[in-house]
Amino acid sequence: MDSPHKEHPANIQGLSNSLAIVPDRPSTRHINLHNQFVRVLLIEDDAAIASGILDSLRQAGFDATRAPDGRSGLHVVAHDRPDLVLLDLGLPDLDGTDVCRRIRAESDVPIIVVSARADEFDRVLALELGADDYLVKPFGNRELTARIRAVARRSAAATGQPVETVSDDRTFGPLHIDPRSRRVTLAGAEINLTPKEFELLDYLSRSPGAAVWRTDILRDVWGTRWYGTTKTVDAHVAAIRKKLGNPEWIQAVRGVGFRFEEPP
Question: Per-residue pLDDT tens for 66-87?
Fold first, then answer.
């Protein structure tokens, strides 16, 4: 785990190359911009932070794995060839900037730095060493997902990689949700939802049957800077239930939050 006040590496160019990774083979990755086939490697030493990030990525449909330090991260990149790397800078064995440099020297895999270091120096250094984006902790899950997909699009366009355009539509019995057009139909009839109602339904329906914490809903749907009452979630859930004509579509989970599920 990195500290926002950690000292900068004294000489990036002079760091040892003894852990150089195996050169990447010509890319044949098929990037799916709707998450299902995007394999994400998180290089993060803090187990608690990693667990939260991995859970959110898997909930969003990514195939996410973790390496707890720089050396193991380099090994995974060399041998498993993930589609994208999330890289913490404050690793226990190597500084993340060195890991970034070594990965970029041998591979074109997209790299997003996720770090508590917010100084301009750190951001510029990481980008100059080959990172494709830089996200300062703490961040919301929706922002992380959006950054991953944006970097994947840019990478695919720049390298000529084939891009899968599999639909992100979801169907639950008579209910059909299309995130791209932001349309919801029930038994063929379109349901008119407000923008926030759609975002909430879209968010919950991505993990059908799973209980979602109220705090996670507020963070990911309303944003990390939302400071209003949590009752706003209840109000939006009530509105969605009414428009869908059945409260069983979104069930309250006592002490937790809500669960989306097709009614029996």
Answer: 999 999 999 999 999 999 999 9
Instruction: Of 119, 140, 101, 109, give the one whose Cα is nearest residue 226.
Output: 140
User: Per the structure, how many domains does the chain have?
Assistant: 2
Does some domain include residue 1?
Answer: no
For residues 62 and 44, what is the distance between their CA atoms, to the nearest angstrom? Answer: 17
Rounded Cα–Cα distance for residues 161 and 36 (Å): 16
Does 46 share its domain with 91? yes
Parent domain of 51: 12-164
Long-range contact pairs involving 128-132 (C-beta distance under 8 Å, separation at least 24)? 129/12, 129/97, 129/100, 129/101, 129/104, 130/100, 130/101, 130/103, 130/104, 130/105, 131/87, 131/100, 131/104
pTM of structure = 0.56
Quick: pLDDT tens for 218-262: 877 877 555 666 688 999 999 999 999 999 999 999 888 999 999
227 and 113 together in one domain: no
